[in-house]
Amino acid sequence: MPTRNVSLTPEQDAFIEEVLKNGEYQSASEAVRDAVRALQQQRALDALKLDRLRLSIRAGVEALDRGDYIEVEDANLDAYLDSLAAPPGH
What we know:
By secondary structure, the chain is mostly helical. Helix content is 67%, strand content 0%.
């Protein structure tokens, strides 16, 4: 397994010591590997969210191009947004 030297802040080091003392991990390396896995998962989730956002933007632009939208006057914006948040049938 490759080895890397990393520098931690005092707070990060204290956290590692705490999780080791609590028996959550057997070694600092194990804790750091778990943190890297969590970072990888978070980045993958962020990428999925970004893809969904891009699809939503594309769908919105296409709806605008088709003329499929509702114009709302500034004075009525709050009421319109409230109506979108209301449960169906209310």
